[in-house]
Write a structure and sequence with these properties.
Blueprint (H helix, E strand, L loop, with lengths): L12 E4 L1 H5 L8 H12 L5 E7 L11 H6 L8 E6 L2 H9 L5 E6 L2 H8 L3 H6 L1 H10 L4 E6 L3 E2 L3 E2 L2 H13 L4 E6 L6 H14 L5 E5 L6 H10 L4 E4 L19 H10 L8 H15 L6 H5 L13
Parallel strand pairs: 1-2, 1-10, 2-3, 3-4, 4-5, 5-8, 8-9
Antiparallel strand pairs: 6-7
Length: about 300
């Protein structure tokens, strides 16, 4: 090692969230098109996929087919499937549909919590135990995703201590792991490392993942900072799709193919095939009916030498 080497883990675990976070801001996508997306995503080698969310179909109509999507997941054994829920009712629906590994969202800020779930942060935290019991009773696990972990579109900057308190309370109530969400894409590398370190210190032994949006162009830099800090679980969305319908100004997640390109070219193994990801992005683009925001996808993937004399 020399003084200019990055200190990076040998491997990371990427969770694909395009089927849920990526689609929740889109117009309705037919079930068959979603299954084609899933087929293409599984072919990339991804081991964890957030398949859908069991939330109000009125609030998020494009995911109203959650039960139908869940019924098809047995087509692809070997993938760790999970679903997002916003309350115990959603957890019951998910478990009844055969998805026992749950993600429960708790907003660290009251403003976003009320807009997203119709209740305060304290009330949302108070339901963690019930959701955990439902997941564990079905043989699954519970990950608490802390939304607006850094900033809120209504309340402004979220104090580190507030996010840490939510994390500590969630673990005490039964959460098996945590994920810190940059819901509106405002954080920066130093703030990422500061919060990750604080949460780890408060919750020793609990896996802590990250979920970044690229709204202000800092998503990949934040991902690299998190990985340098030892985070090995990262969310990403095929093509850079995504956003939160209850967070004004929120745009897409970091693109899975861009994250994989950055990490693999830096010597960090992801287990995902870049060419297969680009193929999955093409399938996704057809499904949603518009151009994807991913710069790498638009560039066509890795640079291919043109050869001497080839016109530019």
């Amino acid at each position: 090692m020399n003084e200019f080497d990055l200190v990076l883990p040998s491997t990371v675990d990427v969770r694909e969230v395009g089927m849920r976070d990526g689609l929740q801001m889109e117009a309705a996508v037919p079930l068959e098109a979603k299954l084609e997306m899933l087929e293409a995503l599984v072919a990339t080698g991804v081991r964890r996929i957030e398949a859908t969310s069991f939330v109000s179909p009125t609030a998020v109509p494009t995911l109203a087919d959650a039960d139908q999507v869940a019924a098809e997941l047995t087509r692809w054994p070997g993938v760790h499937w999970s679903a997002l829920v916003a309350n115990p009712r959603g957890a019951v629906r998910a478990v009844d549909a055969g998805v026992a590994d749950l993600e429960y969202v708790v907003s660290a800020s009251d403003g976003h919590s009320r807009a997203n779930a119709g209740r305060s942060t304290a009330e949302a935290v108070g339901a963690v135990g019930e959701v955990a019991a439902l997941a564990h009773g079905a043989g699954g696990s519970l990950e608490v995703i802390i939304a607006t972990a850094w900033d809120c579109p209504f309340d402004g900057r979220t104090p580190v201590a507030r996010t840490v308190d939510v994390a500590r309370a969630a673990v005490t109530a039964g959460a098996d792991q945590l994920c810190l969400g940059d819901t509106i894409g405002t954080t920066t590398p130093l703030r990422v490392v500061t919060l990750v370190d604080a949460v780890r210190r408060a919750c020793p032994g609990i896996p802590v993942g990250v979920h970044f949006h690229d709204t202000r162009g800092t998503g990949q830099a934040n991902a690299l900072a998190a990985v340098q800090a030892g985070v090995t679980q990262l969310d990403a969305s095929i093509g850079g799709l995504g956003g939160c319908p209850f967070a004004p100004g929120a745009s897409g997640n970091i693109a899975t193919e861009e994250l994989v390109y950055m990490l693999e070219e830096s010597g960090v193994r992801t287990g995902l095939d870049l060419d297969a990801l680009l193929a999955a992005a093409r399938v996704t683009e057809q499904a949603v009916g518009h151009e994807l925001p991913s710069s790498l996808y638009r560039a066509g993937g890795r640079s291919v030498p043109r050869g001497a004399g080839t016109p530019a």
